[in-house]
Amino acid sequence: MTSVLRENISLAITGSGGSGMLSAGELLLRTAAKTGFYGLLTRSVGPQIRGGESAALIRLAHYPVETHDDHFHVLLAADWNNFHRFAGEIVLGEDVLVIVDEQAGDLPEMVAAVADEKSILRLPLHALARELDARVNMVALGFLGALLGMEQDMLRAVVQDFFRRKKRDRFIEPSLAALEKGRELAEPLLKARGGPLIATPGKPCRDMADCGARWLISGNRAVATGFLQAGGRFVAGYPITPATDMLEWLAPRIGRAGGLLVQAEDELAAINMVLGASFGGLPAMTATSGPGFSLMVEGLGLGVMAEIPALIVDVQRVGPSTGIPTKSEQGDLQLALCGAHGDAPHLVLAPDCVVDCLHTTAWALHLAERLQCPAVLLSDQKLGQMLSITDAIPPAPWKAERKLKESCAENEEPYKRYAITEDGVSPMALPGTPGCLHTVDGLEHDERALPSSQVEDHAAQLEKRHRKLARLEDWPDEEMAHWADIMGSGEVAVITWGSSAGAAREAVRMAADEGLHARHISLRLLWPPQKNRLARLLEGVRRLIVVEQSHSGQFLHYLRAHYDLPEVVVSCRRPGPRPITPRQVLRALREACEMKETFSERVCT
Predict the structure, then answer these.
(1) Which of 239, 262, 293, 428 is the most buried (most CB within 10 A)?
(2) What are the strands of the beta sheet with 568-573, ordered from one edge?
(3) Of the CATH numbers 3.40.50.970, 3.60.10.10, 3.20.20.70, 3.30.390.10, which one belongs to the domain with range 215-390?
(4) What are residue 376's phi and psi, to 5 degrees?
(5) For the domain bounded by 8-207, which CATH number is listed?
(6) Which CATH number fits domain 481-604: 3.40.50.2300, 3.30.70.20, 3.40.50.920, 3.40.1400.10?
(7) What is this structure's pTM?
(8) Inter-residue contact 351 to 524 (CB < 8 Å)
(9) Containing H/E element for 269?
(10) Which of 80, 82, 89 is nearest to 125 (CA)?
(11) Which residues of 555-577 are buried (b: 16+ CB within 10 A; e: fewer)?
(12) Contact, 129 vs 106, CB < 8 A?
């Protein structure tokens, strides 16, 4: 491995499920945050409850990062059990450093094809752990901490805090001894190299406040935080990978905010509980993944018909059906846009990075409450379970605000729950509001909420429900500034949604370094379409690259259906769980610049 000090390094820490490598990765990232790094961690595991394979995939840098690099510089493997299952996810660089237990056996083919004997270190990781009655992950953590130039006292403090929070104090002493042994193993390599693998970014942080209140947060936790900041006070959900940890994080916290979380018996019950709580006046949310969202679609339609605000968070995973529960994909877009039967206009939004999970969630809840309709928020496994070191995230400026009918005097005309208004939003009376008794169900109705099968009533209510979303296009730009993010300029543009934005943003910056100027557009509001707004963002663009993690090109088809696109379109897509990388997008950018006008679409896989 080269001895040049880096400002950006990627590590993969792997081992059999249950070996503690995911914990080692998280502890390394926590120490990196205190050392002053930015960074991220994603985890890759098999679908087994326990056992199988596990990998902590880490990137550290002197600057904020949103996505993994195209290859890994360091691989530490406690064993090779089922390592072949990572073939599409752990791509090793030509200068990779491989650290492996000396008893692990022959290198897998995918490792042997890249690494030579000079770049392979075989160490007694398991033997030292057994000698100290410790776990192998602590030896590995000590070795990597030293290799990255992290202070031993800082690493020890992080490990002590980890075990104390779990009330497992008996593991502290053997774990600290294992850290020390790991550091001793690294000393010959550090001496041979003349120092650590990456430059330390300035003054180490003794605590997070020293880093300017830097945060260590996952996408799922950021969604939950945005929901609470915007005034969300009720959550109902049923456990499902990869959304469960969002509910687990919220459970002890929502009560302190004056709210309530309920674990429902299934997803059908969860969505109906959310609608009931919202009907009673509480801004409400449920969190699920693709299979659970499929079960909630009937409830989604009820929310549209009854005009009840609700936030449905879909942390997408590989589908269809059970699919690959622990891996990421952007395959639920069509379901989110068009899943409900009949004409059922609702909001669909997507955050595009961990930080944005907080703000876009708050905005989604604000829009749902203001427009009195369900909002679907599309995250995914990569984004939801990514642990990221970020600068402190400013509070979301949006709040849950609903147009309410406070009372109805005796001399007033009967309360019209679904009154035809100019903006399509009718004042909503909460249960018990004097003089505002009305029925709410899934039947079509007239303005007074009385069931009706009349053509005129159905047409009027359809138009009303459509109009209140369509009028978003007429809202002032300052109120809609969050609908999309744009950076850069040029005749070539990359357009994304969701977690694929990180790779595209990095690719556009890399292209600029090559003298290739392009713009990046990340859509957060996917429904309703903002035709005029996107047209303005695409002014002067002649070539467009559409980036998504989907086999069939769902995002491309959505754009073609609802927007006018430039003359040349390149579809840069691949299905999960293999991630889209910055250099893959960069290659698509270069290709788009070389294409002739006669080509209308290319597929870059």
Answers:
(1) 293
(2) 484-488, 518-523, 492-497, 543-548, 568-573, 601-604
(3) 3.40.50.970
(4) -100, 125
(5) 3.40.920.10
(6) 3.40.50.920
(7) 0.95
(8) yes
(9) helix 267-279
(10) 80
(11) bbebbeeebebbebbbbbbbbbb
(12) no
- When pLDDT is cut at 50, 70 and 90, the band that residue 523 belongs to is very high
Q: Residue 442's Cα: distance from chain center in Å? A: 33
Q: How confident is the model at residue 603 (pLDDT cuts 50, 70, 90)?
A: low
**How many Cβ atoms are within 10 Å of 438's Cβ, its own excluded?**
18
DSSP string, 404-422: B-----TTSPPP-TT---T
pLDDT, tens digit, 9 for 90 and up, residues 464-497: 999 999 999 999 999 999 999 999 999 999 999 9
Domain ranges of the chain: 8-207, 215-390, 403-463, 481-604
**E runs forming strands in 409-465:** none
Structure tokens, 153? 């006292």
Q: What are phi and psi of 393, to 5 degrees?
A: -90, 120
Rounded Cα gap, residues 310 and 374, in angstroms: 5
Whole-number pLDDT of residue 599: 52
Two structure tokens written together for 7:
């400002």
Question: Which tokens go with 286?
Answer: 């449920």
Token pair belonging to 216: 């260590």
- C-alpha torsion angle, residues 548, 549, 555, 556 (rounded to 10): 60
Which residue type is seen at 151?
Answer: E
Of 566, 525, 526, 559, which Cα lies nearest the Cα of 542?
566
Place of tokens 């360091």: 74
Please state the length of the chain: 605
Which of 14, 11, 67 shows the shortest CA–CA distance to 380?
Answer: 67
Average pLDDT of the chain?
93
